[in-house]
Each structure stands twice: as structure tokens, then as C-alpha cells.
């Protein structure tokens, strides 16, 4: 059991948060937002996606954004990469870490990547190999770990087979995704305990969506099982285009409130994170689901 009080947050708002937004955020505004996030104490920011712009038009400016942000020492700037061509673009733009992705269920993988799991693995293996040759670390996202919008319950034997295949490629970290937000603490505990037979908790992260309002409870359970890395998105931005009805990621500020309240160390400023969340809420011109953000803004408005 991991008893460390140090928790590392992977901020995915600029990629996972914006990828489904219909409101276009200007390149200059993305850069300003990411620069603000870089000054909050976050150790990791997923800046954009190098999936073809046809599929994710909201992030069509990935190369310019990644190339022009003001980098802060100690911050890892990552990007999502689907294949070798996307990797070439990401490397040219100066990515620090490559994030590959696939699903734990066949139907979601076909909807999301347009390939079977069997056909996806060799592509990701090649991306991982080249990224490693270029001196980059590699993170693996595994979606629908706790449930699938098309298949329902995720079959655990197949899940573990996919986990083993990703780890055998040599990825540095595995992010277990509750893509549609259906997990409950008992399921999180059961899955994490099974996956730790193949992956040490030091190389594991949880990526939890809040569709059913369970993300914070699930994170608390993840902490008890030894996980110390969590994906989150300022404001609670996010969702999955191939998971109908899925709400956003857990809000970074709500995650921080929990962690700090429980005595965990993050080195991240909650106040600065809420300012960054307020910035992107204003640009999107709609209220975001973060509890702490709305409380913060209400208090600011009453002063």
C-alpha cells in the first residue's frame, strides 16, 4: 500500500476539456490559459491533441499552441497522439510526453478509433517505440475501464489482457478511465486491486468523470488503494464524443479541495486554479460544473 502524502495532478483541460466544445477558443486565448495553468504549480499539463483536425476541429491549432506556450521548468507538457503521423507533428512542436489511447471494450474502441483492439495495439506499439527512441516518455490512456456506453459492464479478463499489452509496450504510466462516469467506490477498489497485479500504483493514474456525481468519492477510494496520480480538468470541462451523455472530468479545483482537506500535498495553488477556471468559463460563455468554482465566483461577486 502506498502511504505517500504526495499526490500528482495531471491537468487535461486544454485537451480533454476543450475537444468537444462547439465554442472556438482562439489560439492566443488557449496559450494565455495554458500559461496561467503553468504558474499554478501543476506538474503536468496535457496541452492538445494531434488527432487529425477533421475529427477534433476544436484543437486544429495544436502545433502552434504547443510551440508557442511559455514553458515553466518542472512542468511536463503532453499531447494526445493517435498514430505515427500525429507523433511526427507532436515531435516537431516540442512535446515532452506522448499520450496514446485506446478502449478496454471493443465497441467503444471501434467508435473512438475506427479500429478493433487487435488492430490498434500494433499502431500504439510503433508510436511508443519511436517516442522512446526520441527520448520521450509515454502515457497510455485506457478508456471504458469501469463501464461502456455500448457494452455495459467491462469484462475484466479482457481489461487485464489489454493492460498487460500496454505495459509490455513499455509505457511509463497507465491512466484508467471512467469514460462515462458510472463507477462507484467498490468498483474502483476492485478494479485497481486487480490492475495492481500488473501495474504498480506508482505507474497508475485514475481518470474519473462525474456523470453520476461519484468522481470525488471514487478518488477518495483510489487514494485508499494507493493511487497517487489523478487526471482532472479545471472547471470540470470535458466529456467523450463517443460516450453519449457523459459529463466532464472531475474539476481540478474540487479535486484539490478534497486532497488538501485530507492532508495530501500537491504544490498546486487552489486559488490560482480557480482563477484559471474562471478565465476559461468566461471565454466559453457558459457556467462550468465545478462546485468550488461557482462558490468562488459567488463569493467574488458578493464582495
Automatic annotation (TrEMBL):
InterPro entries documented for this protein: Aldolase_TIM, HMGL, PYR_CT
Keywords: Lyase, Metal-binding
GO molecular function list: hydroxymethylglutaryl-CoA lyase activity; metal ion binding
Alphabetical list of Pfam families matching this protein: HMGL-like
NCBIfam families assigned to the protein according to its UniProt record, in alphabetical order: PRK05692.1
Family assignment from sequence similarity: Belongs to the HMG-CoA lyase family.
Protein name in the entry: Hydroxymethylglutaryl-CoA lyase
